[in-house]
Amino acid sequence: MELDHVVINTLRDMDAASTLFADLGFHLTPRGHHSLGSINHLMVTPLAYLELVGVPATGRQRQEVLDSPRGLNGLVFRTSDAPETYRHLDDAGLAPLEPMAFSRPVEIDGQSHEARFSTVRLPPTAFPGGRVYFCRHLTPELVWRDDWMSHPNGFEELTDIVIESRDPQATAAQFAAITGAAVRKLGDERRIDGQSFALRLRPGPVERFAELTLRFSQVDEIARRADQTPGANWRPLGPSEAELEVPSLDLTLICRAG
């Protein structure tokens, strides 16, 4: 199981969301405009990235984004072969949607390039807590660039996501089926470990992606910035860990040094 990225849905509030994350010290890539009718900014680390997604004020607007809830909403695994991933999921009876190709323009050093992707999505009924799909990057050099992976707040890695479910065992089994990874039982929680990223499934009243843990070189800088950023609530959990809440996005991030 290899994480590609995690999605935060901003719906029609991308301007406010991108300003807030920049104020918190994340280095956001320039705004991208997908051919499917969505816009985005990335916060890239060497292994994976955090993505803000929304829809433009005018023009084509992707209905899948508008139909999805605000906040943590997309969990995306990496694939090197979208058609093969589709066949694997289909053979497992998971009813994947056909592979979809799309692109977005990227400007680097004054030159225009086209970032291209191929995705295989699971139907919304498979994981009611959020969108789950696989992504193949056909032009990874247009995403993983050194200057985009340097964050003033020390952001370095996405480490785990908490998924709440009425039936954590059943939901964990679904994730195990699509990733091929094993499920561990830890009390009421179920855990699936992948390459540098873990899924933690715990009981909850509704199906949702509840919180995401991010690793930083240190948390002093993001703590300082959070205290000065309207709309960001910082609550220390220990000397090197804190909870960062963004109510406008219904978002909880656990920020941890190490």
Strand content: 35-45%
* Gap from first CA to last CA: 22 Å
Q: Overall mean pLDDT score?
A: 94
Helix-strand sequence: EHEEEHEHEEEEHEEEEHEEE
CATH homologous superfamily designation of the largest domain:
2,3-Dihydroxybiphenyl 1,2-Dioxygenase, domain 1
Poorly predicted tracts of residues = none
CATH class division of the largest domain? Alpha Beta
Please estimate the helix content. 10-25%
Pfam family, one: Glyoxalase_3
Protein name: Glyoxalase-like domain-containing protein
Domain Glyoxalase-like: 3-178
Topology, please?
Layout: E1 3-11, H1 14-23, E2 32-33, E3 39-44, E4 49-54, H2 63-66, E5 71-78, H3 82-91, E6 100-108, E7 111-121, E8 131-137, E9 155-165, H4 168-179, E10 183-186, E11 189-193, E12 198-203, E13 208-216, H5 220-227, E14 233-238, E15 241-246, E16 251-257
Parallel strand pairs: 1-4, 5-8, 9-12, 13-16
Antiparallel strand pairs: 1-5, 2-3, 3-4, 6-7, 7-8, 9-13, 10-11, 11-12, 14-15, 15-16
Structure characteristics:
258 residues, alpha+beta, 2,3-Dihydroxybiphenyl 1,2-Dioxygenase, domain 1, 2 domains, eight-stranded mixed sheet, 16 strands, Glyoxalase-like_dom, Glyoxalase-like domain-containing protein, Glyas_Bleomycin-R_OHBP_Dase
